[in-house]
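During data preparation, we tokenized the protein backbone, and the record follows.
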Amino acid sequence: MNIPFFNYQSLFKENEKKFIEIFSDIGRRGAYIMQDDLSKFESKIEEYTGIKHAIGVANATDAIQLLLKAGGIGIGDEVIFCSHTMVATASAIAFTGATPIPVEAGPDHLIDTESIIKAITPRTKAIIPTQLNGRVANMDKILDISKEYGLQIYEDSAQALGAKYKGQCAGSFGLGGCISFYPAKTLGCFGDGGMVLTNDDNIYNTIKLMRDHGREEDGNVSIWGFNSRLDNLQAAVLSFFFQSYDKTVERRRYIADLYHKNLKGLDEIILPPSVNSDSNHFDIYQNYEIEAEKRDKLKEYLSGKGVGTLIQWGGKAVHEFKDLGFNQSLPFTEKIMRNSLMLPLNMTVTDDEVKYICKCVRDFYND
């Protein structure tokens, strides 16, 4: 078999006629920037998540940075984040002038709450949990910490549209969260795209100005802003994909369950939490990330069998980029990064392909 990790071409080819219609419609209307397609899509996300405000922006990195700026994070502040994340989480902190403070991940690859407490100093202003791989962290503990120490919470929920903790959607627990619409995400467009989620009216009003150069409706510029708008064409494409998003999540959960059933019992690998293993969590499985002994050899073996895999972020946690000024040692996170491998999980993978992948994994360890 030939199973790519993600089939980017299929995003377009499977509905090519419809996308040509969308492009023609937008083009004929000349509706390229901040038009009805965007506002309607924002409303759909608000309704789906139960979050008061959704604001389309250029990408999820901008979304986090805009949130931090709108919440008053800046020079002299420290913001705690999990080092098992994309560097964008930390760069958003750094570009506000604040200092990113990386801490350990736990066994579920999400932020370790005990590590949060150990990292708090008089300069700590906020915590950013990354809701990674389509799973929400234990937000009860994080909310307790934020209340005890008077800290803000922002969520890097880029990979977690529709993921829930105790029935509450990612992005709704603190001052705000973000969503990424990068093509390989559970809901992806044909380029970069992102969204801010917030229940805070002041955050919402500030970011609406900030994403468009700080301009008010009458043209007055009342604050310093950015150029960070989700363009109307991408919003229309996302609206089309969103029509079947419930089925997308259902299918991803089914694939994850199929992986679990076919890989459980292998001593050499650690699987992510299984579907419905914890009633507090509703996971959408943006990724299926395992920890595997002899990870690099397994990756090579699977490649030889036609199976594409991915080592997330090139195999380095954020604190390991020493040129950025980090000097922390986070041994558990480093262990995760040395062993983690993502198996194909997307809407083009068939049941038979998943079973074949699992057989190849088992064959590798049984040889």
